[in-house]
Every structure is written in structure tokens, then in C-alpha cells.
Queue: 2 jobs
Job 1
Amino acid sequence: MIVETIKIIHLLALMFGAAASFGNLYILMARGPHDLPSPGFTNQLRYLFRLTALAAIAIIWISGLLLMLIKYGWWIQSFAFDVKITFATVVLLIIAFLNLMAMRTPKNPGGPPSYVPVLHMIAATSLVVTVVFAVIAFG
Ligand code: HEM
């Protein structure tokens, strides 16, 4: 029962995190050649996605570590799990970095700095790869 509950939390956090990650990509796609005149609204969405992603990845890591410790012990000896954790680490680092930078630097009227879209794309791709290797690791 406890394992099922933690796994539900793991997957629900993944769901919310994926919504934020892909939401950022949709904002990028909607940008278009002539920017639509709603920077305040777009920035509010960016803010919501940024905080959702931070909460989600924290919960994913905590629930994932708990699942591992309760069900399997200190580590899971499988190549697929190594790959999964590698990409889960990439996702964690990118979200932590983007949140840190957004909190430290004042808002730019021309939108976020150019490295931000690149990191969003790497994070979304890493998230997909993590899910694929989670399924390969656990069947
Ligand atoms: C972005 C990060 C992560 C994503 C997208 C993710 C995704 C998933 C998915 C889709 C499953 C279900 C796989 C299945 O049952 O077939 C799963 C299960 C699991 N995850 Fe994660 N995970 C992430 C991070 C982590 C971390 C950091 C850990 C541990 C250090 C972890 C440990 C586990 C464990 C132990 C299970 C298996 C539970 C079971 O035996 O049923 N996950 N994860």
C-alpha cells in the first residue's frame, strides 16, 4: 500500500512536471515572427511553469529515492536505471538553474535570455528519455 501510494505520487508529479515542461515548449512555438502582444500574460505562464517544474522535480526525486530504498535497496543494478538517473539529473539541474537565474536576475522586457529556450528543449527531451528508460528498467 505504501509503495503504491509513493508510486502514485511519483507519477502524478511526473504528470504536472511534464505539463510545465511542454507548456514552455508551446510558449516557444507560439512566439511566431510577430510577437503576440501579451508579454504580461506570457510571463505569468512562464512563472507558473517554472514553479510547477521545481515542485514536481523535487517530489519526483524524493518519491523516487523512497521507492528505490523501500523496494530495491541502495541502488538498482541495471544499465537502464543508470540511464534513467542520468537524465533525471539533467532535468533536475536545468530546472534548479533556471529557477535560480530567474530569481536572481530582473525581468528582461525582450523575454528571457537566449539560453533559456535551449535549456527548455534539452529538459523536455531528457524528461521523455527518462520515462522511456524508466519503463525499460522496470518493465
Ligand atoms: C525526471 C525524473 C523521473 C522520471 C520522469 C521518472 C519516471 C518514472 C516512471 C514513468 C516510472 C514507472 C515505470 C514502470 O513502472 O514501468 C518510474 C518508476 C520508478 N522510479 Fe522514477 N522517474 C524519475 C526519477 C526517479 C528518481 C530520481 C528515482 C530514484 C533515485 C526514481 C526511482 C523510481 C523507482 C524505484 C521506480 C519503480 C517503482 C516500481 O518498482 O514500480 N525515479 N519512474
Job 2
Amino acid sequence: MSVRAYSADRIYDGDTVLHDHAVIVEGDSITGLVKLNAVPSDLPLIRHPGCTIIPGLIDTHMHFMRWQGPAFLAYGVTTVRDTGNDLDWILQCREAWPKETWPRILCMGPLLDGDPPGHPLVARTITDVDAAAVAVRETASSGVDAIKLYASIAAEWIAPMVEASHAAGLKVSMHCLPHGVLVAGRAGVDEFYHLDGILADVWPDRPSGWLYVWGDQDFCQTWDRQLQVADEIAELGIVSTPTLAYWDSQWRRRLQDPYDEESRFVPGDLLTWSSADPDPETGEVWRRATEAAVRFQGLLLERDVPVLAGSDTPCGGILPGQSLWRELTLLVEAGLSPLGALRAATSDAADFCERPELGRLRTGSAADIAIVRGDLTATIPDQPEIEHVVRAGVDYDQPAALLQEFHDSGWRDDPWGRQMALHWAKRISPKA
Ligand SMILES: [Zn+2]
């Protein structure tokens, strides 16, 4: 592949902001980040005035379906970390991404879960502590990038599972409901998802129904305890991936129409299945819950708890890629600077995943680049205009056109398509 250079008004390289520079790409790698006047005159220079060049984004929490691939690329997301899927299927997808219109894929294999599992078609069910360690060892030896524990894992299994995973060189991430984040963190879990486990920590004698707790008018009375829990989380050094875009989707679904892009590009049934009927009352509870979650994430940011950007698509019917930009704006709302938010989806994500070739624009990095209209160092757009995407050296100079590659057919056969169909059947069966 030919050597070429890209320039824009500014470049965020994953660590700092540079002006009057260009990124040089050869094959699937970046071979230089140089002053504009040092770009060899015989090199094609692709200029994007009015734009910011950033490393291709990493969505650190999502569940892969094939239809999502082009949409991620359309929004400049060049790596996704699958946080729970059918093991054999996701390993095949991870193998196949270079040949497809997909981002590169990191994966955790199945949700390791207790009995009964929350999402049986994408889970491995565990019934006792010995089976728990075996499940971790077998999943690790299949070649996954990390281990994911789900909500029904018994509290006393967590430490042996973490030990087995760390012995295999893999980090452990957890959906911590119902034991709480502190129990998980003390057992050695490296990363927690969705903030929702916090409830067990801040309001142990809570009324039932976690949504109603976060959205409860009296939740603010736990404020002192929230501060203590935030302090303890900071001491444990556990990473937060709050997936605020998912929370946000839940009140929007009940109080507003989907975004235009969601209506146009999320497969119709999938949007319906992951939506709720308009319901102003529950919508307001979800809105308060989302505000409380954003506020709590703010407490973690004040304490320098590391944060990663993940969207949880396809849950909530949110559009892959766009949902990660939404996550970045919500992280800014929680207290990150625009550059801090970008870091959560680039260099910090790559560091946590131990993939030094990703998340930065420097010599030797993978040629994963997004060129976005506007000054991203000042404002993170909710609806970004992506001008150009490079994924592993492959150019997409009309990224928006990738959205048209969507097809409604096929997604039902993917594990999460089948899982969602099962959920939907359960949801409508009481009416039948
Ligand atoms: Zn998830």
C-alpha cells in the first residue's frame, strides 16, 4: 500500500495536541508523526482543514453483531472490545475482522454467570466454586483477551476466579450487581461496569428494584455514603466503565423519539425490542437515575479513578459508534475535559487492554485514525461529522456512506440477535 500523509488543523495523538504536523501511514502502520514542513514533497498529503485528527476510537464495552461493523467504522471506532458473547462465534469474528468492514475485535468470550444465567445464549453457566475456576481457565486457554464475570456469580467465587484469570495473564471485568463494587474490588476485580453495583454499597437496605433506587427521590440522602464508597473505590484502584450512553438511552426511549440515525440505521425489530413503550412516569425515574449515575461517576473522576468509554450497544437500541460519542459527551458532563474523554476512548483504553499498538498516533502504531470536523480539544460533538477513517491502513474517505451498508437481514442469526429474540418472547408472552 502506498505511503501517504494526513494533516488537519490539529492532531491529538493520544497524549498531547500538535499543530502543523502530519501523520504518515505505510501499509497498516503509522511510520511517523512529523512537522508539516518535514513531509517529503513526493508524498501524497491528504489535508482536512477545519478538522481534528485523533487515534481511531475504542469502544470498551459492547456486544458484537455483524451489522454493527460498518456503523462503528462510520463513526471512527476502529477497535471494539466485546464484553460477552458466544465463545466460538466471537473468536471466529475476531479472526475475520481484517477481511470485513468491521473494527478490530478484542473479546472476553462468554458471560461467566451463575445459575440461572441472565443471558443464557451468550453465557457459560457455573454452579459451584470449583466449576468457577475451571470455567475461567478454559475460557482463558481459548485465547480470549480478558475475562468477564456476570451478575449471578456468587460472592465467594469471585476471588478464586480472579486468581485463575490473573494466573493466565488476563484481567477480570465484572457486572457487580448484586454484591457491590467493593466486594468485587476487594476480591481483585480490575474493572466494573455500568455503576449499578454501587447500590449494594451505598444503600444496602434499599427498596427492591435497582432502577427505582437510583431514580428514587430519596437517593440523595445516601450522599455521605456515596462519598465514602467513592473514596474506597479510589483506594482499590478498580477501573470504572460506566456505559452512561446505555442509561441515557433508557429515559430517551420513554420520553422522546429515537435519534433520526437510530431510526434509520438500527434494524427495526432490534430497536423495538430494546425499546420501551412511551412511559413518561418511568422515563422520569430513568432520567433521575441517569443524573444520579453521572453525578456518582463525577465523584470517581474527582478521585482520579480511571475511567474507560464503553457504550453497551446493541443494548438500549443505540446506534453503534454514535453511542460512543454520546458516551464521551456524558463523561464530559460528569467532569472530564474533552481531551480526558478522548483519552478514555483511546490511549487509556489501549493501556488497560495492554495493546500498546492501539490508541495512539506514533511510529509503529496501527494505522487506525479518525479525522473529525471541528476542534475536539474544545468540544466533543454529540453528532460528529467524521470526514475520513483509516482502519489498519484501509481508507474510508466517505465514512457516512458505510451506514448504508447496513442490512436488516442476518442479524437475527447472531448470538445476540437470538438472545434478544428470547428476551422479547419472554416480554410479550404474558400478554399472549
Ligand atoms: Zn454489556
